[in-house]
Write a structure and sequence with these properties.
46% of the residues lie in helices and 16% in strands. The protein is of the alpha+beta class. α9 links the parallel β3 and β4. The mean pLDDT is 86.
């Protein structure tokens, strides 16, 4: 009798379906199975994949989960965690390469895809500034502040000072709302106006301020707030 694990045939079939039909041919739990195969070469991954999805909600939320949260799931060893975080890092790097050193205003959807991938699933607020040159090409992408679940301290003078250091002539601000609601608060609106006013005095344009979340994103410019 063969001494191969009983799930070997399943793995082969899953790989073939993926290679033939692409990622859309697999539901989230099977795509997770495929990712985890390398971390656990002799174990059935279906139950673990379904457990992860039940705990975190979606494929994107699984790979974006905190390492400590993943470690709390039975069956998630160091190898499996590293594999999932490597997938997340690869996705972010690919998305970032689509916008770096390119005119971002003409690649707006790719910019939003990158910002959502980088920030939408964070548990605490992050404040990111994208600095642009005269051709609106992205020259720097920096997370300037990290806050709590519902607040990030932002200092308008520091935002503008950094733009001067980089030689940037325009910027786009992005921050996340862990609550899932991308609606701007009054504090968000006031801070945005302060940055815009400080930048105008030095010839630095604020193109937009975008709030991202699991529920989508909102643009201050599209809402008439800039």
């Amino acid at each position: 009798m063969s001494d191969k694990p009983h799930h070997t045939g399943h793995r082969q079939r899953l790989r073939q379906r993926f290679l033939k039909g692409g990622p859309d041919a697999l539901p989230d739990y099977e795509l997770l199975e495929l990712v985890l195969f390398g971390a656990q070469p002799r174990r059935d991954m279906k139950t673990l994949a379904k457990t992860l999805l039940k705990r975190f909600g979606s494929f994107a939320e699984v790979i974006s989960a905190e390492t400590s949260d993943l470690a709390g799931i039975e069956g998630m060893g160091e190898g499996a965690i590293a594999t999932l975080k490597a997938v997340q890092a690869a996705a972010l790097r690919l998305a970032r390469d689509e916008i770096i050193e390119r005119p971002v205003l003409s690649n707006w959807q790719k910019l939003m895809d990158y910002c959502r991938a980088a920030m939408a699933y964070e548990k605490t607020e992050r404040f990111r500034v994208l600095y642009l040159n005269r051709k609106n090409v992205l020259i720097a992408d920096e997370v300037q502040q990290k806050g709590t679940v519902d607040h990030t301290p932002v200092y308008p003078r520091e935002v503008v000072k950094r733009a001067l250091e980089l030689g940037a002539t325009a910027l786009i601000m992005v921050h996340n709302h862990p609550s899932g609601d991308p609606t701007p608060s009054q504090a968000d609106i006031e801070m945005t106006r302060e940055v815009m006013a400080a930048g105008e005095k030095l010839g630095i344009v604020l193109h937009d301020h975008v709030i991202v979340s699991k529920g989508g994103h909102n643009s201050f410019k599209s809402m008439g707030l800039i």
